[in-house]
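Hi there,

I know you've been waiting on this one. I reran it after we fixed the sequence typo, so this is the corrected version. Both the input and the resulting structure follow.
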Amino acid sequence: MIQQPAARFYSLDVFRGATVALMILVNNPGSWAHIHPPLEHAAWHGCTPTDLVFPFFLFAVGNAMAFVMPKLEAGGPALFWKKVLKRTFLIFLIGLFLNWFPFIKYNDAGNFVAKPFESLRILGVLQRIALCYFFASVIIYYFKLRGAFVFSAFILLAYWFLCIAGNPADPFSLHGWFGTKVDMAILGEKHMYHGEGIAFDPEGLMSLFAAIVQVVFGYLAGQYILTKGKTHEMVNGLFVAGCVLVFAGFCWDMVFSINKKIWTSSYTIYTTGLALLILSVMIYIIEFKNWRGAWSRFFDVFGKNALFIFVMSGVLPRLLALIRIPTTVSPAGKQLYTTPFNWFYEHATKPLFSDLKNGSLLYALCFIAMMWFFAWLLDRKKIYIRV
């Protein structure tokens, strides 16, 4: 569906667009074997700049909800459930589509075969966004402002309790975290992520709890911005709240480690605090100081079609991977191939640097530039794709 965007703080669009740009950057290196440390996820406990991207996006989803929730509340329960269920279903379905796309692959003989559903990963980034959006919407709609805050605090504490109760001897390790057993029982091992060497899903069902709160906190921040308006009190309030939450996240980290992969409660508190700090600074320099220009327009373009551009950044590499370019022959006499994007990395960006990490980064920047061009074309034609 194509519609015009709702009026909102320009700084919020820039914040969301910058988050999307960073998501594309960290998801599309030239080589996964050559990445600068800040552009990698923490191995387990801890938080790198890359680990801020996903929670910032969920926080931005909550911000946007603050602008549309009044319309849903005015329309009554029927309109609320129709809109929320439709959006949840579409985003989840798009995520599942992206995991399965392009539905075919090459077999060992070099022929196309269908990608089996039996090994399709059910969950993922978009699926988590969909589920977080759904549950956060329900919490906000029925519990209202204060109730949503109290219920969110309960969720964070309850998740901490579940982690410890699920495995008191080793609650927070890759092998000891209780959520994996739940995911295996409900989803099945073959439908889970295996990037950690075992069946473990970083967007699993149990780590969803604290991620839902991320959206609720984003909504509370957006509601605060709307209520206070463009005032210094609003900016100061956001900044102070950010400082408090960052400090609280560090304190909680002492007993409940900051961890993106199991989305701990301390991680939610800490990253929400950082989001508030960054957003308050962006509001101040953009809305108050009017420091706008090419940098803000660059990110704003991403923000106006955030979901569509993110999906396109996943579809294009998968689609072009079906095009095979012959390279060399293996010692066993088998023809080896590369893909168009990998060819560009090997022949255009990789040879420019002795440090392969820089070549990999340049490739990612080129990919962002291409995605920005598509986003710019849509914005120029006033096309804004929503679900």
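Quick highlight: Residues 1-40+293-387 form one domain.

Best,
R. S.
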